[in-house]
Every structure is written in structure tokens, then in C-alpha cells.
User: Which sequence fits this backbone?
């Protein structure tokens, strides 16, 4: 207890006395791309011939504290940029503002980097964080068009149950347990076309930060993962553009400088042919979609930066036959991000945003389908502050509040029209401390969820500890350990056995149940070398203390639809990367096990995969030619076998009719839930991309072949028709991109 | 030394990846897949002990496994070698076999193989054990306890004898239920004798408990809402019947074109379902939950060694006789 008080007192003292430190000799500034004017995140800044060093944050800001007076050489390096060394005179008590402009390494000699997080991962200690930049997202062969979420599936611990869905499941967690952020805005339905693609064109993405477990205190409200996408800023130096054509869609991206030092970026995509979907899904699927992303960015001569981002997307599934229902999905999200120094050592980043998701099913003249609609309307604000002390101690703190309004309109199984409306405020505050002591690094804090105050008036799971330790064991190898507790109060409604969910309607966890919550424990060894082999071995254990599951004992209206179940997930993940001249090999293997306990029933969720292997080989024999091969293997997903049929009686109208003569309906008798396994999945994809320059244009032509050996991977078995439906077969596609 | 250990770790990790990959590849690429589990033919039994019926029936089917789903050529077939026995305390009822006419043959073409007995006379509070024995399909068993007699009463004698156009539920039935009752259904039935031509017949018409809101003029019998099976929560059951519902029922019968109508009595019936029947009925009918957002359709069975339902109910009634000079008679 006394330790806690001491810790708190120290923190408060440091925070409140920050102004007095304005007299110290700090060096601070931002790191900028000299060509585009965009900020460079996570650059390494060191004082040559000293132990002092730091890393820039995600908006390129750095601060070196307590630098002794005198002349120093400050070196800055970042992946993909030439190293810069600058001499600087530090005078006692006078803060030095030092901004760096790094020159990108020319494209001809730029290395292909699968994961460019070397500096950050070591600095941030965490066990389960992956950072992908735009190049990484474009490495894997594409299914008709590049996609951010399809690329995530290369990472260990992330699985998808289908080739044609970019929905993903992380370490035994359900699909609604992933927090997806775009420039700080929560995106509730980040999918196009029944989930075939994500909303995010890789060309708008600067960086994706993926936490697959034990994420830091700054994130909350989901149990399993965080996918934090930072969008590109527009170029400040010149007008530029990029057009791309695939068999599925066309795209145009334009960017450039504007008045008052602003820059802008507009990216618009639109599907051009439903024929490709028909080929992909092997059935008539008249899906049309579009998305538009706009970003306006500005920065002062100092460290302040501000952005306005706006995303709008729409999807429509509409058959020509008026007896077929029509589906529509719309996403709109807009946000303002501001970052800058609030005090001499207090750097603040704040986001205010609005996010809207609407979906509806119009039965038109179909009498067997009912009208359904769902919407999420949310306004939120998020802020985080970093307090710099010296190069080894950092304090972070922040808060987040959002007010999602959830609406779900449906006709239920007894024919009633229902309207479920919830206002589900989410309030959280957090505190984080990061320090280094020799070979030992510590990053820990508390995430405090206060939203449960609005959930039956009781505070539950308020304090959620998040801890990470890292110790340099031998050579470049680090031993790591993390623990975190997480809670979630919003869930999606769908039949948990549905293969593809048309609607992911969000509802609040019913008031009669506690929030979903989970604990993560992770141990691992990581080795990261800047330009060579990197490797990681992680063991995780997740305990879902409360998850919302169907009430198997429900008999009538007096019994709740849902009850609290529990679950466990554990596994081992290995990640290995090896680079030698023009060969870049990236391999991941994951062994996982997850199960759900619902009353007396224990079963494997349908995304439980034992073995998952991904091998990605990137060859760049010529500077303009890139050949990629990806082979994926996954052991079979669970499914429930049918073991026969019976004639099922409904017993008439409240037993008013005698049952003796009733003719029942065929009812499929199911075996033990998810006790059987689909066959193993494997697939080889190959792509080749060639770039050529015809000034002022740069043209890239890519040929992508999915499932080269046409492996018939089972998607599902239709119980009603007896038909086996396979996932993607051999599927070639062409992608042409023109840049200027 | 440190360098050596680091290299060893590197190689260990490489070996891990290569080794695991080899195991996975050798084991996992075999693509045997059986979408169906092993089919074991079992008995499917439906029987509801119904004291208001002259005979008790047991329907006996079997599970089936068509090569493709819903093929009319492959459906539930009769079980030819089965025998059905119901035991109650020291009494044993061996059921005779029969064929029941299937009313709707659009899906299942065959009539229904069943067993029946007319010997069971006493139901209240009795525990019955059903055993179906089939040399080819094994034995299926189940047992139930029928609820004991309730105590019943009703209010509204005057409203019944002199109907008034008031929406207030002045007619009210109440009961104290049996502890074996899981669900109950209270019904109010209007019994009359009607004449068409030279022919007299007895008619029973159920009185609604309310009306659907379908605009003006909604208080007509066709818009009536009728009682549903309700869970026994407190051992007490009650049901009100509005006067206008009673009136609409009287009007409906009067307006059906009979030459003469003589209203004889009002019968309040209380059906008490034991727990298996109540559970099966609700689950098979979307939980009877108007607020449920569940979309799954689970099954319920209490048949050991098979599937289906063995259920039962007790039915009791109170009769209110209408006066001979009842104002709504058509004479």
C-alpha cells in the first residue's frame, strides 16, 4: 500500500512540477520526411558517444531530457531513411528545439521489410504487438484487390474461417472482441461485401499497430485484440496521385499541399463489376461497394500537428429479382486529431470523433424474409498524454469516453417486431509507467473502466491492471512477460454457428449479465535484429471469466436469452524471419486451443484452429521485380456433424389441436457441438509485380494467382442440400497501378 | 559465450519451425472429411397423455438418414417390430397398434404408425412410465408425473348471465395449481346448441381475452387474442375475460346464420402441463417469447434411448350454466 502511495505521489509531483523543468536542458522536436513533409514515427534519436537515446512517438515527436550542457552529436535513424547526424550546442537551462528532416532511401535500394517495428518493439516491451507499414500490407498476393485485413492473417494467432471473409479471430477470441480504430475513430463494421474485404485500402494506411494480447492500458472495451490503423497524411511538397485497376474495383488517390501549410489526401474506391464476386463466391452475388477517405493535415513549425479524417463507405447487395431481399450497409466516420506539447515535457494527443454504422435488409416482395435493420451512432473523445522525465522513465495517462447509441430492429422467431435501443456509455481512464533498469524494462499501469456505472448502476471490473516486463537474457534475445485484464460491454448478435453473418448488430451486454471480461498471460522470447533474422516465441493463456453465450436451458419468456459462460484459450506462436540478399523469408506457426463453457456444455468455438502455418517468401531478383509466394496451412475448424433426421412435431396452437395426426417438419439431429473437424486447409498463392517508370509516371503491373494448385478447401457443408461448398479455387487476377 | 548461446537459441527456433511444419504437413494434408457423423437408427416417440381424449396414443417413428436432405423418397418410416407399454404403479397397459391418418401428406407420405389404449382412466397425480421396445432399434424409456387436481373458482356470474358492452374484465377465473404443473392454459368455452334445418348440434366456441389493434372496429371475434400456455411461477393462476370479448363470441355465434341458437353453458377449463410437455412445446415454438432475439431452434427430448416427447397434462373444468331465458338465444 505504501509503495502505491509513493508511486502516486512521485507521479503527481513530476506532473505538477513540469513547468519548473523548463529550466533543464532538453532537446526536443519532430522527425519529418524531407521529401513529403510527413512525420516519421518511431525514429531512433541518440546522442552519439553517450547512453542517452529515445524514440519518436507515433506522430514523430521526441524529447531527450536532461542533456548535459555542451556540444553533442545527435543521430537520427529510421527504417527507410538515411541516417542524419547533427551537431548541437546545449546551454544549461535552455530547451533546444531540434527538428530533423530525413531523406528517404531511394526506391532502388530500399529493402523489403516485413515488420519494421524493430525499434519500437524493443522500446515498448510488449509481448504481442505487430506493426505493419504500407509495404507490408502489399506483400501478400491479393484476392482481386489488396486488403488490410487479409494481410493481418499472416500474423501468428490471427485466423479467419474463410477465404472470402476478412473477419478475423485472435487467439481464441470471438470476432466481436477486436477493436478497430482508424485515426482514433472506432469503426464498428469495418467490412465490405459481406466481409470479403475490409473498408481500408492499403494505400491510405501509413501504419497498422496490432495487439494480439495483453495490450497496454491505453486500450480498452474489447477482450481480444486492437487493430489501430493510422492513415497517411497528404504530401506537402507536391501534387501526387495514384490510380489502380483490378478485376473488381477501380481506385483513385490524390494528394498534395494546400494553403496555410496544410496537406490533403483523397482516396476513392468503387467496385466496377459484380462478375468478379460471382467468380469468387461461385454464386450470383450482385454486390456493389464504394468508399471514400479524406484527410486534411497540418502542422506548425513546432511540434503541433492536427488532422481531420473522414471515411464514408457503402455496400449494396441487390438482386434483379424483386423477390430477393436487398441489403445495404453504410459507414460514416469523421474525426479531429490534435497533438502537441501542453507543457514543456507534457505531450498530448487528443481525438474527437463520430462514427455511424447503418445496415438494413429490405425483404421487398419476399414473404419468407423479414425486415431487419441495425445502427450504431457514436460520439467519442480520447486523449493521452506523455510525461517525459528522463530517457528511461515515461509516464502516460489518458481518458476515453464515448456514447454509442445502438439500435436493432427485427422480426423475431415468433413474428414480433422488436426494437432494441441502448445508450451504452463507455468511460475509461488510464495510467501507465515505463522504465528501464539495466537489462530489465517495465511497462505497466491501470486501465479503469467506469462504463459499468451505467450498466445496472454497479461498478464492476473497474481496475484492470496491465503489466509487461522485458529482460535482455542473452545476445539479442529478450524474455518477456505480460499480463492484462480486459472487459467488454458491447457484443454482436448473431447465431454463433452462422458461417457468414449478414448483419453484425451490436447490442449492449444485457443488464442481467456482468460485462464480458478476460485475463491474458503471455510469456515469450523475442529477438529482433535490424537487418537480418528476427524471431519470436510466445506462449499465451487467456481466461474468459465471463462471455455472453446462448442460454441452453431457456424454455420460455421467463428465461433469459443469454447467460454468462466462460472460456479458455492457450497456445504457442513462433515467428521467424530470415533475410539474405534478395530473399526475404517470413514464417509463422501457431498452435492454439480454445474452448467455451456454457453451463454443462463445453465445446470448441468454430474458429478454434490447432495448427496454423504461414510461409511468405519475397524475392526481389531485380530492383523493379518482386515475386511473392505465400503458403498457408491450417488444420480444420470445428463443426457439428449431422447424425440423422427425425420428424419434429410442433404440437399445434397451444395444444388446442390434437397432436396424433400432426405432420411434423424434418429436423436435423446434430451430434456433439463442434466435436468434428473440417479437413485441413492449405493454399499456395503466387504474385509477381513489375514496376516501370515513364516519367512522370510509375506503373506497376501485378499478376496474382490464388490457390495455384486449386486445392478444394472446404468452406462448409450445407446440411439442407448435402452440398459441399469450397473456398476459393484457382483464381488469377491482375492489378495495375499508375502513380505520379 | 553469450554469442554461442544466442546462436544455439537461433538454431533451436529454426528446428522448432522446421520440425513443427513437417509434423503438420505430414499429418494435416490428408483430406478425409465426413460431414455426417455415424448414423445410429433410433426410436422417435411422441406421446402426450391427454385425459380429455378417449384414447391415449403413442406415435413411434424412427430416425432416418437420407443421402441428401429433404428427399421425399427418404423419410421417417414406421417401426414394424415395436411394442409399447405404459406402467403406472402396479398397473401395466400394453398398447395395441394402429394406423393414424396423416392429415398433411405434402412432406411425409405415409400414415402414422401408433399404439393406443383406452384403459387409462385416472391421471391426476399419477406417475406413468413409457417403454417402447423394438428388437431392431432398442429400448426407449421415459416417465412423467401428471399434475394433481387444482382448486378452481370464478367470478362474474352476473356478467355471464347478463352480458354488457364493457371492456373491463368482470369475468375472472382463478386456480391454485399443482406443484407438478410447469405450465397452464386457462380457456373459457361457450357451449350452445344450434339448429340448421332439422339438425341440431352442439358447438363450443372459445372466448378471447382481448383483441388485436387493427384500426377501428377491431372488437370483433376474428381479431381475438386467445390465452397461451403460461409458466407456473407462483402456484396461483388467474385469467380475466373482458365483457366485450364474451359479447363478441356470443355475437359471432348468433351471426353464423343458424335458425336457432340456445346458449347452454360457459365452461372454464384449466390445463396443467407437466414440465416435459411445457418445455417441449415452448422450445419447439421459439420459446413462446415475444421479446426473444434468439434465432437458433434447439430441440428438447425426454426420451432415453431415442428422441421425442413423452408428456402429459391434467385438465379440469368448472361449468357455469346459463339461464334458459338467456338474452342472446335465437329462438
Assistant:
Amino acid at each position: 500500500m505504501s509503495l502505491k502511495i509513493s508511486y502516486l505521489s512521485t507521479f503527481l509531483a513530476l506532473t505538477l512540477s513540469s513547468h519548473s523543468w523548463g529550466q533543464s536542458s532538453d532537446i526536443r522536436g519532430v522527425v519529418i520526411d524531407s521529401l513529403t513533409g510527413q512525420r516519421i514515427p518511431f525514429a531512433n534519436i541518440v546522442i552519439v558517444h553517450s547512453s542517452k537515446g529515445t524514440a519518436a512517438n507515433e506522430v514523430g515527436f521526441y524529447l531527450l531530457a536532461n542533456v548535459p550542457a555542451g556540444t553533442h552529436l545527435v543521430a537520427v535513424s529510421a527504417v527507410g531513411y538515411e541516417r542524419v547526424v547533427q551537431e548541437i550546442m546545449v546551454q544549461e537551462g535552455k530547451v533546444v528545439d531540434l527538428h530533423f528532416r530525413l531523406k528517404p532511401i531511394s526506391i532502388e535500394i530500399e529493402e523489403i521489410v516485413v515488420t519494421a517495428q524493430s525499434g519500437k518493439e524493443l522500446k515498448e516491451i510488449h509481448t504481442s504487438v505487430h506493426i505493419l507499414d504500407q509495404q507490408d500490407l502489399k506483400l501478400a498476393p491479393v484476392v482481386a484487390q489488396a486488403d488490410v485485413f487479409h494481410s493481418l492473417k499472416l500474423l501468428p494467432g490471427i485466423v479467419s474461417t474463410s477465404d472470402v471473409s476478412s473477419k478475423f479471430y485472435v487467439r481464441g477470441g470471438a470476432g466481436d472482441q477486436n477493436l478497430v480504430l482508424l485515426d482514433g475513430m472506432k469503426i464498428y463494421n469495418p467490412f465490405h461485401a459481406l466481409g470479403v474485404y475490409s473498408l481500408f485500402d492499403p494505400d491510405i494506411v501509413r501504419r497498422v499497430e496490432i495487439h494480439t494480447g495483453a495490450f497496454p492500458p491505453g486500450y480498452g472495451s474489447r477482450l481480444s485484440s486492437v487493430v489501430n490503423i493510422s492513415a497517411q497524411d497528404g504530401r506537402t511538397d507536391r501534387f501526387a496521385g495514384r490510380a489502380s485497376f483490378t478485376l473488381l474495383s477501380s481506385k483513385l488517390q490524390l494528394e498534395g499541399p494546400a494553403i496555410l501549410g496544410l496537406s490533403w489526401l483523397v482516396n476513392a474506391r468503387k467496385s466496377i463489376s459484380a462478375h468478379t464476386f460471382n467468380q469468387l463466391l461461385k454464386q450470383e452475388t450482385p454486390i456493389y461497394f464504394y468508399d471514400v477517405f479524406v484527410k486534411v493535415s497540418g502542422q506548425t513549425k513546432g511540434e503541433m500537428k492536427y488532422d481531420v479524417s473522414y471515411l464514408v463507405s457503402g455496400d449494396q447487395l441487390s438482386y434483379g429479382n424483386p423477390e430477393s431481399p436487398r441489403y445495404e450497409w453504410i459507414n460514416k466516420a469523421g474525426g479531429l486529431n490534435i497533438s502537441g506539447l501542453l507543457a514543456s515535457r507534457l505531450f498530448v494527443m487528443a481525438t474527437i470523433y463520430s462514427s455511424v454504422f447503418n445496415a438494413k435488409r429490405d425483404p421487398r416482395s419476399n414473404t419468407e424474409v423479414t425486415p431487419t435493420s441495425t445502427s450504431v451512432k457514436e460520439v467519442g473523445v480520447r486523449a493521452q498524454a506523455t510525461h517525459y522525465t528522463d530517457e528511461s522513465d515515461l509516464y502516460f495517462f489518458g481518458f476515453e469516453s464515448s456514447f454509442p447509441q445502438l439500435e436493432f430492429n427485427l422480426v423475431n422467431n415468433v413474428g414480433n417486431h422488436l426494437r432494441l435501443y441502448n445508450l451504452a456509455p463507455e468511460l475509461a481512464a488510464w495510467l501507465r509507467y515505463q522504465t528501464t533498469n539495466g537489462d530489465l524494462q517495465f511497462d505497466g499501469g491501470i486501465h479503469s473502466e467506469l462504463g459499468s456505472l451505467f450498466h445496472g448502476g454497479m461498478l464492476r471490473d473497474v481496475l484492470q491492471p496491465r503489466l509487461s516486463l522485458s529482460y535482455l537474457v542473452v545476445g539479442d534475445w529478450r524474455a518477456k512477460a505480460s499480463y492484462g485484464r480486459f472487459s467488454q460491454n458491447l457484443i454482436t448478435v448473431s447465431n454463433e454457428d452462422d458461417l457468414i453473418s449478414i448483419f453484425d448488430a451490436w447490442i449492449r451486454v444485457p443488464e442481467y449479465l456482468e460485462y464480458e471480461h478476460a485475463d491474458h498471460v503471455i510469456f515469450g522470447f523475442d529477438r529482433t535484429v535490424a537487418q537480418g533474422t528476427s524471431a519470436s516465441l510466445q506462449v499465451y493463456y487467456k481466461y474468459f471469466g465471463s462471455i455472453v453465450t446462448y442460454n441452453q436451458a431457456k424454455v420460455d419468456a421467463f428465461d433469459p436469452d443469454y447467460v454468462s459462460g466462460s472460456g479458455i484459450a492457450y497456445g504457442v506462436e513462433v515467428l521467424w524471419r530470415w533475410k539474405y540478399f534478395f530473399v526475404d523469408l517470413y514464417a509463422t506457426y501457431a498452435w492454439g486451443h480454445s474452448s467455451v463453457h456454457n453451463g454443462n456444455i463445453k465445446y470448441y468455438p468454430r474458429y478454434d484452429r490447432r495448427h496454423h502455418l504461414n510461409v511468405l517468401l519475397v524475392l526481389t531478383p531485380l530492383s523493379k521485380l518482386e515475386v511473392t509466394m505465400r503458403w498457408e496451412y491450417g488444420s480444420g475448424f470445428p463443426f457439428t456433424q449431422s447424425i440423422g433426421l427425425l420428424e419434429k412435431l410442433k404440437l399445434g396452437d397451444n395444444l388446442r389441436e390434437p397432436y396424433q395426426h400432426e405432420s411434423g417438419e424434418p429436423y436435423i439431429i446434430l451430434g456433439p457441438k463442434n466435436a468434428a473437424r473440417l479437413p485441413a486447409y492449405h493454399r499456395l498463392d503466387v504474385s509477381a509485380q513489375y514496376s516501370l517508370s515513364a516519367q512522370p509516371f510509375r506503373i506497376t503491373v501485378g499478376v496474382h494467382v490464388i490457390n495455384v494448385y486449386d486445392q478444394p478447401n472446404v468452406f462448409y457443408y450445407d446440411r439442407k442440400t448435402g452440398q459441399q461448398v469450397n473456398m476459393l479455387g484457382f483464381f488469377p487476377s491482375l492489378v495495375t497501378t499508375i502513380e505520379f | 559465450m553469450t554469442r554461442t548461446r544466442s546462436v544455439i537459441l537461433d538454431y533451436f527456433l529454426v528446428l522448432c519451425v522446421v520440425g513443427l511444419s513437417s509434423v503438420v504437413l505430414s499429418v494435416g494434408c490428408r483430406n478425409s472429411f465426413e460431414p455426417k457423423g455415424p448414423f445410429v437408427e433410433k426410436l422417435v416417440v411422441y406421446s402426450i397423455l391427454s385425459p380429455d381424449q378417449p384414447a391415449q396414443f403413442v406415435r413411434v417413428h424412427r430416425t432416418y438418414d437420407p443421402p441428401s436432405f429433404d428427399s421425399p423418397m427418404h423419410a421417417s418410416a414406421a417401426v414394424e417390430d415395436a411394442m409399447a407399454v405404459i406402467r403406472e404403479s402396479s398397473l401395466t397397459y400394453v398398447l395395441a397398434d394402429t394406423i393414424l391418418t396423416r392429415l398433411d401428406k405434402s412432406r411425409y407420405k405415409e400414415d402414422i404408425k401408433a399404439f393406443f389404449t383406452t384403459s387409462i382412466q385416472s391421471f391426476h397425480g399419477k406417475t406413468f412410465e413409457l417403454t417402447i421396445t423394438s428388437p431392431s432399434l432398442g429400448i426407449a424409456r421415459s416417465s412423467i408425473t401428471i399434475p394433481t387436481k387444482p382448486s378452481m373458482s370464478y367470478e362474474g356470474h352476473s356478467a355471464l348471465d347478463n352480458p354488457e358492452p364493457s371492456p373491463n374484465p368482470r369475468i375472472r377465473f382463478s386456480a391454485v395449481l399443482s406443484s407438478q404443473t410447469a405450465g397452464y392454459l386457462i380457456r373459457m368455452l361457450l357451449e350452445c346448441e344450434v339448429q340448421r334445418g332439422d339438425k341440431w348440434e352442439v358447438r363450443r366456441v372459445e372466448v378471447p381475452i382481448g383483441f388485436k389493434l387493427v384500426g377501428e372496429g377491431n372488437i370483433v371475434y376474428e381479431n381475438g387474442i386467445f390465452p397461451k400456455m403460461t409458466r407456473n411461477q407462483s402456484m396461483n393462476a388467474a385469467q380475466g375475460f373482458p365483457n366485450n370479448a364474451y359479447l363478441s363470441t356470443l355475437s359471432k355465434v348468433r351471426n353464423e346464420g343458424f335458425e336457432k341458437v340456445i346458449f347452454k353453458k360457459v365452461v372454464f377449463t384449466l390445463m396443467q402441463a407437466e414440465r416435459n410437455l411445457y418445455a417441449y412445446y415452448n422450445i419447439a415454438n421459439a420459446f413462446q417469447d415475444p421479446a426473444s432475439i434468439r434465432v437458433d431452434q434447439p430441440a428438447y427430448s425426454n426420451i432415453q434411448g431415442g428422441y421425442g416427447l413423452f408428456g402429459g397434462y391434467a385438465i379440469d373444468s368448472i361449468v357455469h350454466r346459463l339461464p334458459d331465458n338467456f338474452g342472446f338465444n335465437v329462438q
About this structure: Residues 43-145 of chain B form a domain with the Immunoglobulin-like fold (CATH 2.60.40.10). Residues 2-28 of chain B form the longest helix (27 residues). The first strand of chain B starts at residue 43 and ends at 49.
